[in-house]
User: Fold this.
Amino acid sequence: MDRFIATKKIGDTLIIEGEELQHIFAKRIKVGQELELFFEDKLYLCLLEKLTPKGAFCIVIKELELTAPLPFITLYQCVPVELRTMDFVVEKVSEVGAYRLVPTLSKRSFQNITAINKRMERWKRVALSAFKQCKRPRPLEIAPLAKLEELKADADLNLLLDNFGGEKSLKDLNLNGLKTVSLVVGPEGGFTKQESELLRKRGFIPVKLYPYILRSETAALLGVGLIMNLSTPS
Ligand code: SAH
Assistant:
């Protein structure tokens, strides 16, 4: 079923306007068709009742309470120096099933906090667009910026993707019955030795993905995708 973002809710009617309305026309959606509409963090099953050049008016049939699949993966992605690479990370980890993305500052990450914060709105838009396309129950949550040295190993399983010192493979870990997983991925230049040691001391397990050195965005997408597919909820 097609999914759209509503701009307004009046009583039991959700309204789609502006750019999103253009998607309704582009997809040739017709009056009488059922749609999934997202509005203020909720997803609704609706029926398109009226379509005008100003708006699509949809009656709410019911709220859809979809639950997100386990485990809930929080990806701590060190912000790539090539900032637009993060757009790719947001889109791809949305598709493969990350729950939350925490843009993270590290020694070799992009450093300009103002520029990163300016980019947050864009990442939220990318997350919404991926949510529409891949039919996840809710958009990837984009959390405020964090600092690598402040990360805590507070999930059921805490992993550090490390192409240098990662002795373990994902196959060596017990991925069953996990509710929460934290995954830390370095920027293009990787972690410094101190950063990698600090995270290990804090309880993050260093893991190496087989067989080559990956780009940061590839590591993030593969790491999240493998964990989602190999773990079995209890
Ligand atoms: N410049 C570094 C590569 C960094 S790759 C070098 O020369 O080695 C960027 C990040 O992607 C790394 O910090 C790590 O988090 C992740 N990564 C890349 N390949 C990986 C692999 N094979 N296993 C685990 N993590 C990997």
Q: What stands out?
A: The chain has two domains: 3-63, 72-230. The first helix runs from residue 18 to 26. Residues 161-163, 166, 185-186, 188-191, 208-209, 213-214, 216, 219 surround S-adenosyl-L-homocysteine (CB under 6 Å).
